[in-house]
Protein 1
Amino acid sequence: MHLEAPLRLQLEPSGAFEVAARWLPLAARVRMTSDVDLCAVALALSGIALDGKPRCVNLAPASLADSGFVPRLRAQLFAAPRVARKLSLEVAEVAAVERFSLLQELSRQIRPCGVQLGLEHAGARLGQIERLFDLGLEFVKLDEATTRGAGRDSKRMKVVQCSVELLHSLSLQVYAEGVCDDDDARALWACGIDAITGPWATERTSAVGG
């Protein structure tokens, strides 16, 4: 479906490239998440232009509260219209619960660019999003806590199946995050999941040279 493209940053010159768990709290503290997110989008667009592979970038919920973020993002996307059509953007489920109107506006602004928008780490609070269909989403990624063990736990599998049926009824694609083994993968496919992320998928992508 797309390559997930998590951003890594150097916090010190010539230092290691740090994962988001290390740099995101620092960026949030100094209100730089929107600048970092725009950098990530620029890198993703450059990558798509080089190899043509669709990519997905995660946006920090805090970026949505920056009044200048969406106009700058929109300008970036309109500057590369053919490439932007292969870009997906996602935000954590909490953004849909706590920043509904801001997420709705983001969706409205990027839709003309052909960019897909989705939720990640979804599951526990999906029921709190009363107007999920009004967000203009294309996909929802169910979090690992929701999908893990579906191959060995019939109750867990039923929860996933019900979530998939609900989201499919809203014309949303449903992906499973963090899948590690064959048993869970088989159970999730049986539930109607559209795509899988995590070690299970990474191994197979690497095996075919993706």
Protein 2
Amino acid sequence: MRSRMQAAQPAPAAGLFDLKQDRGGIVDIEFMVQYWVLRFAADYPELTNHTDNIHILADLVEFGLLTEGHRQTLVEAYRRYLSIEQHLRLMEHRPWEERVELGDEPDKIAQIWHEVFRGKHYVDG
């Protein structure tokens, strides 16, 4: 599903990062949060108390399902990406940022994605 979504989007020019769709972007963070809620809500129904990703990530840490370090990485990137995206949209630009401006944040998010969906990261309640 995630790969199909990515393929359906126009690719940014070389050196640009699509804040929403590129690997390590907003959609990856949102998919991971949705996955964790679907995976663990039966055992931790409190995960459905919040609808925003930042509070859900905090709940995942509270229930021992996510490390604090990974929560912090995800929250910081998510907030930063949303802020940049909002600024670009106000200027009527696509949500594309110079890749170099983002440092290693997309790589960190992509690594967490890899750990989660390769079964190495989350604590299986």
Protein 3
Amino acid sequence: MSFTLRQTTPRVGGGAPILRTRPIAAAEPVVGRGADCDILLPDLAVSLRHARLRQTGPGRVEIQSLGELPIEVGGRFPRAAELALAGAPHVVIGSHVLTLTAGDGPDEVVVAVDRRPGLHGAPSAADEREVFAPSTVALGKRRLAWALGLGILLVCLVLPVAGFFLGHGLPALHADRQWSSGPLSKAHAFLGARCQSCHQFAFVAARDGACMACHGANRSRASIQRMATRVRDWGSPVAPRLIGDHAAHGRLIAATPLPTALGPRIEAMFARAFNHPGDRCASCHLEHQRPDPPTPVRPIPLLVTVNSCAACHARLNERLASTPLLDVPDWGRHPDFRPLLTVSARGPRPRLERIALATRPIEYPGLIFSHRVHLAPAGGVARMAQVLSPAKGYGAPLTCASCHRPDGLGRGFAPVEMVRDCSA
């Protein structure tokens, strides 16, 4: 059993058509528009793999559709048909007619392919040029796609931008909220309707100034109290936590190295050049993060270490020569912690030094009666406090809060005063 393809192609300049004949290697040849088909029919009305031919016996061939489109045999449109070669049956697929006849060899089937553009439903060359013409595609059959695209552009870009510039400061107008990538943490949830509190400039990432307006510690007592009152009026359950232990912004930039790999280094340089540096407050304290899978809203902003500790601190003295910090290659070789201790109270100001805890340092704050004397449960100070407790409110024994009071700004403690704290 074998198949032979006999294909007729018209000449470009007219005249007798060109006849090509070749054997088909496949035992069950596939007919279709795909390049891998045994019988190729270049016609848009033909599926990539349209049908399959198979010999079922002497002088008989079955053709079966491989997709949803049927085949035309004798005016009917079956999904499969068994044909007798004696009648030279015709099979119409798109604009092509396949004529099946018996060949000269034993069990040979000749498949003659002839294209007839005038067949019903077969596109002509002019029709195919019109289908692929840009003028018919741009605003023709795809008007709905253009309308939907322009609608998305209007709703998701034009309206948010117009709302930002025209309705800046209006709590009821927040068309740009659809750009949010996730919910805020519980600590900042009250700002959900006040996007401009953090995003103060259009198409610019949240700047450090917006964060420090609420959290900056180096401000006057009156401004801190005003900010605490304002955020409570907005719905915040607590006053902003003040930040006083971060290094100066310029020193942080100088101490932060660029990534070592070429790609991330170029990305970081572009980010800094286009006003999106990686050393902002929001680079580590992330908001609007929706993990996958989603998890419950976090109570505080997500703290992410953009660079590992060793990336900055391993060779910190090379980039920031004025730093008093020691280089830290890794956690295994981390230097001992060095708290700031008072080594002398003489003179107008006490002298402070950082001393490693491994040396078991002793602080000299200038107190004649040390903390140990004051806090000893059986000492004379504690006994006196018990006697004065009903009038002065001391406890038994004394605690730190008996003498040290917060400064009211959230930055530390007020200085101990003799009359207020000790005269009793």
Protein 4
Amino acid sequence: MSLSGTVKDFGAGMAALYRRYAEWLVSITWKRFFLLSVLLLIVAGILSNLPPFSWDIATKTTHVPSSRNVDITVDEHGVRIKPKSKRSQAPEVIIDEHGVQIRRKADVNKPSLDIIIDEHGVQMRPGPEAPTPPTPPSSLPSPKPSAAQSSLADDIRREVVEPLRREIAKVQREAAEEARQDADQAKQDARQAQRDAEEKRHDADDMRREVMDALSQLGTQERVVHIQLGDYLPQVAFLFILLSAGIKIAYAGRVKAEAKAAQAQEVAEAESLQRQVVEARMAAMQAQVEPHFLFNTLASIDHLIEVDPPRASRMQRNLIALLRASMPAMREKATNLGRELEVVRPYLEILKVRMEERLQAQVNVSEGLYSADFPPMMLQSLVENAIKHGLEPKADGGSLTVSAEVAHGKLHVSVADTGVGFARAATAGTGTGLTNIRERLKLIYGDAAELRIAPNAPTGTRVTIVVPYKAT
């Protein structure tokens, strides 16, 4: 097997493993997920101290300060650090409320020195063993001539001017020489002060280095840290829990989307099956309407043949015309109101022949509504029920009116009679016709259509079919 094939198989296996793990995460509740996460962290903590996770995979050496070479005293007066060995040249450090004091011991090369750091700044002064530096000599003031001498010089200027001038010049030369000597002495003092300052700076640098050396002389000790594989086990477990939570959230959304798609497909298939069932049930209902209508009509003709053959002949001719118009409508799934009226009018003519003056029928429908969609054979059933259960049981008969109108975007087709009233006749049927009409309206239009039954003034019943208005 080639390398690419091996990689593909490995990738497919990992993808399958990921899908199974994601499906398992989605199948459990968040409460169970959190409990398993806590259990995983506990197990990771226990395993981190057991082999092979407790085996060392690396070691690390660190240096930590040690206090074996110094004495550190901490009390109410402050902190005092001094070397344990008296022969040690490390300075003594005192830290108290006045500041920091560093005492350097004297040796063969350097005198003792105290460095004080307080609120006044940094001060350096010789220790108790250091010799006191000599005090530099003070400079002598320059002599000045007195006022009496000047007055005397004015008095005797003419007599002794030359001797005094020579004497004054001599005194001035001596004073200038003395001033020059004083200036040279001041320069020497300044150079000496500069040298002293340089020595103090060097002493401060030496003290700083000695302090650093002293701090390093405090000592260090080595500490070996053992690095184990189990040290990272709790962190890996925590990261795995976070990753699992992310997978659970992401895959849950994907599963919900797939479930919605499957549900939508099932709904579509169910609707398709429902449409097939609706068509089958509608065909069965129409087949049930056909014999119901024909048997009633033939029974009426049979009755007229016995009592009045000429009237039976006319009814037979009207029946032929009726069947010629109604048979195509009974076979169709949809038709319009005009074609339904073409079936109703011959039927009413047949019934007028049979009932004579006991039936007055009217059709009040404007021609503009003939093109409106209307289910087949429903209007015929309403007219048949109105006559059979409303007008025929009444001794003097009555009137029947077929009307239609459009209101609020829906077509209202009504059949009103002045008979005995709904469900009051002795010939009341089983209600199969009205039940079929309701079921057919439900299958075709859903909740957009309805069958209304109400009393008719002054007597009788009004039955109305309401369907969405749509002209073809």
